[in-house]
Amino acid sequence: MKIKHFHRSWVYKHHELGEWTYINKEWEAKEDQLQLQGWEKERRVVIVRRGLSSDNIIGFETQNQLQ
């Protein structure tokens, strides 16, 4: 489970940093080096993401009650 959590947080980190390369109107990519425990050397990793259309975006509302 730790590795799964690590991968998710690693992808979130790159999402926030920006610097994505546009592939076409739907896709963006970014590359980095990654060395997990037990690996002898770093490996090149490519992250690819697809943007959501405005029809697929869901908003959440929260209501904080102060007492």
In short:
This protein has about 70 residues and is an alpha+beta fold. About 25% of the residues lie in helices and about 25% in strands. The chain has a three-stranded antiparallel beta sheet, with no helix packed on it.
Note down, in words, how this protein is organized.
This protein is of the alpha+beta class and 67 residues long. The protein has one domain. The chain has one helix spanning 2-17; strands spanning 21-22, 27-34, 43-50. A 3-stranded antiparallel β-sheet has the order 1-2-3, with no helix packed on it. The model has no long low-confidence stretch (mean pLDDT 76).
Write the layout of secondary structure elements.
Blueprint: H1 2-17, E1 21-22, E2 27-34, E3 43-50
| Low-confidence segments | none
- How confident overall, as mean pLDDT? 76
Number of strands: 3
* Helical proportion, percent range: 10-25%
Count the helices. How many? 1
Percent range for β-strand residues: 25-35%
Q: Strand order across the biggest sheet?
A: 1-2-3
Distance between the first and last residues' Cα:
38 Å
The topology string of helices and strands comes to HEEE
What is the 3D form?
Answer: flat
Class inferred from helices and paired strands: alpha+beta
How big is the Rg? 17 Å
